[in-house]
TrEMBL record:
Basic and acidic residues biased stretches: 13-22
Signal peptide as annotated in the record: none
Chain spans, region Disordered: 1-22
Lineage, broadest ranks: Bacteria, Bacillati, Actinomycetota, Actinomycetes, Kitasatosporales
Protein's name according to its UniProt entry: DUF2470 domain-containing protein
Domain DUF2470: 179-253
């Protein structure tokens, strides 16, 4: 089976696959810096296309607060709506932060009911968004998307996620550092990454032509190997899930030591 043009990954080392749940992956993607657009499925023909979401945050209830331009179709539709009569879909595209074949790692969708955030909801949403960075000046609308369902299609597979699962899930603790960590591994630890070939079976002995770290989460590291015109992924799981950078350093050291033994 292939996903996004790449063969499904081997699991190395370990017998049982461990990884984030679908709800955790959606929550991580929603709270990431990946590009997102907001569409109104029932928009009139000829209406402009999807609206770019400038920033977003997730409330404890699972509701999403979205910052969009005042002039975009989603903002206009929400401003003229009554209660929850406008349905909307936010699509997020996850692209690898390193140069690698087939850079799209996955896509996530959250569908629900769109309203303008007012009163206490506006204040709560503004506080959450302020934690992500400075709020822009005039010309922006703060919208609330009450999640009805979510869907993820990524390197792990595809799955539906219920609103209560999304609300209860936590984003991966390494997500905010992942881009920087992958770029550092790719530029400063090429030899150690190539050594991971030793942990693969004999059929992949020629994998060291190009080795690129692709994804990192608290459970392990996914690497993309290229040999000639073909490529494949392998996932290397940590002995135990990590919760911070210090634990990650120990886990990575153990992984590279196992590869060089």
């Amino acid at each position: 089976m292939t996903r996004f043009g790449v063969p499904a990954p081997a699991r190395c080392p370990g017998e049982e696959a461990r990884g984030p749940s679908a709800a955790e992956r959606v929550r991580t993607l929603v709270e990431s810096n990946s590009s997102a657009v907001l569409s109104i499925p029932e928009a009139e023909p000829g209406e402009p296309g999807p609206s770019v979401v400038e920033s977003r945050a997730v409330a404890a209830t699972g509701d999403l607060f979205l910052l969009v331009p005042d002039t975009c179709p989603a903002a206009r539709a929400a401003a003229h709506a009554r209660d929850d009569e406008v349905t909307a879909v936010m699509e997020i595209t996850d692209i690898a932060p390193v140069a690698v074949p087939h850079r799209v790692r996955g896509r996530g969708w959250v569908a629900g009911w769109l309203t303008v955030a007012r009163g206490r909801a506006h204040a709560a949403g503004a506080r959450l968004l302020a934690e992500c960075g400075p709020m822009p000046g005039p010309g922006w609308s703060l919208l609330r998307l009450e999640a009805g369902e979510a869907y993820i299609d990524d390197l792990w597979g595809s799955s539906h996620v219920e609103p209560d699962e999304l609300a209860e899930a936590d984003p991966d603790p390494l997500a905010r550092y992942e881009a920087e960590l992958l770029q550092h591994l790719a530029t400063a630890h090429g030899a150690q990454l190539r050594s991971l070939c030793a942990l693969l079976d004999g059929t992949n002995a020629s994998c060291a032509e190009a080795v690129t770290p692709l994804c990192l989460d608290r459970f392990g590291l996914r690497v993309r190997f290229r040999a000639g015109a073909s490529c494949f992924d392998a996932r290397f799981e940590f002995p135990a899930p990590v919760g911070d950078i210090a634990q990650l350093r120990r886990a990575m050291r153990q992984l590279f030591e196992a590869a060089s033994a």
